[in-house]
Write a structure and sequence with these properties.
With 650 residues, the chain is α+β, with helices and mostly antiparallel strands. 20% of the residues lie in helices and 30% in strands. Helix 4 crosses helix 12 and helix 10 runs parallel beside helix 11 (487-497). The chain is globular, with a radius of gyration of 29 Å. This is Sialate O-acetylesterase.
Length: 650
Amino acid sequence: MKIIKRILLVFFTLFHFFQTSGYTQVILPKVFGDNMVLQRGIKIPVWGSATPGSLIVATLGKVGAKAKTDKDGKWMLHFSKFKAGGPYDLKISESGKPESTIKLKGLLIGDVWLASGQSNMEWQVQQARDAPNEIAKADFPQIRFLLVEHDIKFTPQSDFLGGKWKLCDTNNVKQFSAVAYYFARKIHKEQNVPIGIIQSTWGGTPVQTWTSREMQLTSSATRAKMLAGDTLTQNDVVKDSLNMIRFWDIVYHPQGNTDKTVPLPEYDDSGWTAVEMPRLVKDFGIGKYEGMIWLRKKIVLPTSFAGKELVLNVGHPEMNYSLYFNGTEICKTIWNSNSKQSYTIRAGLVKNGENTIAIRMAMLWGGGGLNPPAEDIYITDGYSKISLAGKWLYKINVEPAIPKIHNYQNYPAVLFNAMINPLIPFGVKGVIWYQGEANDSEAYRYRELFPMLINDWRQRWHRGNLPFLYVQLANFKKEDPLPAESEWAELREAQTLTLLQPNTGMACIIDIGDAGSIHPTNKQEVGRRLALIAKKKVYGKDVISSGPMYKNFVIKGKDIIIRFTDTGSGLATRDAASLKGFVIAGDDKKFYWASARIEGGKVIVSSDKVNIPVAVRYAWADNPVCNLVNKEGLPAVPFRTDEWKGITQK
């Protein structure tokens, strides 16, 4: 009790001192900090808070600016246009109160890009291709990143939760967005100006969460969902966060000592359910189960394996998992971070005859299981190979149920409120965006949702048609043996249609995806293609920045002739083989694989199965086999000539 009284006494004493002495503090939002990059060529906005009615005096280098605070203590000033350069200091204070001065050091003037979207924009340099080599040579002190911390808010915020400007070096670059870093590096080298990246990203999030409430209330496509969240409070977010802690505790830490019992050879699995593997857990017929699943398989090894060190290959299991051999843990992956497929089984664990393999796996968001093909799961001594395909046993609910997570970060406008609104109106050159995977089931609506976000941000920044460059979805999932409908193809089409918005550019990456991973690792090429578009559209250089784009078609007998723009030096195939990826249909809307050939700047498409063709599609699949490029090596953008109703058009 005495301690509490002392604390209160100190508090009121300090409060009285500040009130009577007139001491005030100039406050800047976190977007401003040491080592930041400010946008060249525009009147540079700086804002914050101080004593109501006071005069704010600021200098950037030797250039001054002033502003008066309003009745709430808010102020904003603008410095005159700067050319690229630096470093500069920024000093801000209330007039006549030197004790209120804020000084920021090491500022550069250059180009600032806002990098936003979901996990493929968030994917770090250390997670991407050739990470050790890329990290080792990342010495670019004139490239700076500001990583905005994740946060969820139901009302627009004036500041974000946390984040500081960091120089690009071998230590800091590891956590940077790989796409944004490779984009920034390319622009920095070619334009010879400092580059700032403000990274505001969150994996798995839909476009609606990045769009303001006001904008979403203007559309019948988003109004109802926007209003549905009005009863939510920050307490709901706190509860969800606590459940999330419990969620991941279960995923990463076996409950009830199951890891000490279930993997043992003598464990009684007589009540477990048999299933043929490999396959995904969502195909087991157990409904929308989400939680931990255990898999077991007993295998009789030949006598020649006994006493030998073996290699066990499990293909590429989905999600987080732990692998056990005769009760001993062999590996434990965390958030799909372990790309290994083969694991060494030390000789001392191998028994003559029957051995037991167990896998503890998280079944989350429709994932979980062992991916086909069957030849990818086996055990070998280096000479002989024993398949692990076939009968396995599985059981769910061996461990406590994981708590339901609401994932409020996916709710409309909440990330705009917490992670975008605090950045406005910081001076930026443009936006780079990589998102869409989380909207695949509503791809047709994305035609409206995505332009809505672009227009929303542009209106709020008051910078006209601010450059907005984005990445089209990569190829992903299994290849379809026959022409089929595709949510991902329809989402890509919505992204292509967004090019109708002024001053936009799209990087097509239909050739560098990964069938087995939604996070393809070749982020270098993604960054390069974005930088190519910026080079042409933003920096005014005469370069080929896009692959062939569908223009129009004519029907001539059994042929459909396709014309393109952006052919560069001419059309070609990526692998010098015959053209792949075209399908053709008649009035019955049934598509067949087509023969296709290049003639000048056109492609001639036909099929013996379609006598009177009416429509052609190219690269129209989740993971299409396609190879049309221009001679500069950029892939043709997927397209269709028909407007038939798609599977996401409700």
